[in-house]
Amino acid sequence: MRLVVLTRAWRLHDHPALQAGGPSALVALDSFDGDWPRRTACWRRLSRRELAFKLRSQGLAPLDARRLDSRALAELARLGLSEIHLDAACDPLGDAWLQRLQGAGLPVYRHAPALTLLELLLEGRPTLPRSFSAFHRLFQARAHIQPAQDFHAASPMALPASLKALEWQEEATATDSSLPSGWQPGEEAGLAALASFMERNWSVDSREWERSAPSAFAEGGSSGLSPWLAQGNLGPRRLWQALGEALDQPASAPLAASLRRQLVWRDYALALHAHHPSLEWEAVAPAWRLFPTRPLAGRLEAWKEGRTGIPVVDAAMRQLRDEGWMHNRLRMMCGTWLVKQMGQPWVDGLAHFREQLVDWDPALNAMNWQWCAGCGVDAQPWFRLFSPEKQAERADPEGALLRRWVPELSPLSLPVARRAWALTPLERAAVDYPVADPDPSRGRAEALEAWARFRA
């Protein structure tokens, strides 16, 4: 008898832990969401509810993983439990689950959410590659992606009366308002989103496509699949397989290859988190842990509220607040602006994104924030400072994002609105838009001064 403990992947397709457990395995669902941010916790609850219903429809009564204490595990071992398969990332939360289950004295096998096994990828290597390009070459040379399969339960063991208390209890069905409107958690919604995305008309120019729309709900600009991928509703191998089919079509091949590369970036982030458990709060590069920041509560709050006086940053931050999502290019812009020009600690930005994003992934987001701050692997050089005007032109060429999320600037022409920090006091008062603190010129000077102090 085998036990499968699910903590992250709320789906029946492309599920290595369920496949390893086999069709007759006992399946336990992690019901504790206290370690997850509010929007992620809501997504988990709704996804878990859907998965529990699917398992029951196949005749399998799921267990509550939080009730698997040492006594319950010992009783299951007495009844014939021989091994445990854990669906968890190689991060602090996954490590805690692994340690807890290993207390039963049975073999425990962890199945991380990556495309391939990190152990096989790094076999014979003492360390993780320090750049993505090196990791990508290693991935291309060694990775073997298993085909995605669906799980079907068959003849699960009936629990004796003494263990009936372990059975999963249906969660409350009250409406949860934590999620922004427009998002539908769960495996079915994730697969539907994938099918819809694969049916779009893809641009041959992947760069042009990326800049064509700054919304997750619009054609172009983004696949919009990141929430379902991050929350375990959509399997990475299923997505990899779908993109592989698109590679066979000349019109879609460039974009499919680009998106596959993004999945390899995801594996790199997961590997990095496994090697650096403190990735979310400590710089990978030791020297950067002493970098001089300029913490100012007013600047941080203005950034969170989308009131920095920098239109492209304010538009993106307001979108994040209301939709729980922003385009990757804008995440880089907002992150670097907070850390470099505004001088705030990168961990403060990470903490805010953690609470707001519907596609929050601990490994990916921590790696990206360290990239913005110049303190991680393959990081952006500190002296590379984004121009808010140029980034607005690239990420929002038609001004749709700016017009929607910063409506107070609507009376102004688009070129003027993009440079609203340059408005005169009278012009600013007329549209009720905040003074930039700092403006691009001062922000650049402050960032380079901090860089000079760090190097001194």
Defining key terms:
mainly alpha; single chain; DNA Cyclobutane Dipyrimidine Photolyase, subunit A, domain 3; five-stranded parallel beta sheet; Rossmann fold; 3 domains; 456 residues; Serine Threonine Protein Phosphatase 5, Tetratricopeptide repeat; 5 strands
Largest sheet descriptor: 5 strands, parallel
CATH third-level topology of the largest domain: DNA Cyclobutane Dipyrimidine Photolyase, subunit A, domain 3
- Residues in helix, %: 40-55%
**What CATH architecture of the largest domain would you give?**
Orthogonal Bundle
Estimated radius of gyration: 24 Å
Q: Name the overall outline.
A: globular
- Rounded average pLDDT: 91
Query: CATH homologous superfamily name of the largest domain?
Result: DNA Cyclobutane Dipyrimidine Photolyase, subunit A, domain 3
- Spatial order of the strands forming the largest sheet: 3-2-1-4-5
Q: What's the CATH first level of the largest domain?
A: Mainly Alpha
Uncertain stretches = none
One letter per element, helices H and strands E, the order comes to EHEHEHEHEHHHHHHHHHHHHHHHHH
What class would the helix/strand composition place it in?
mainly alpha
Q: What is the beta-strand fraction?
A: under 5%
- Give the distance, in angstroms, between the N- and C-terminal Cα atoms: 62 Å
- Total count of domains: 3
Number of helical runs? 21
Q: What is the number of E strands?
A: 5
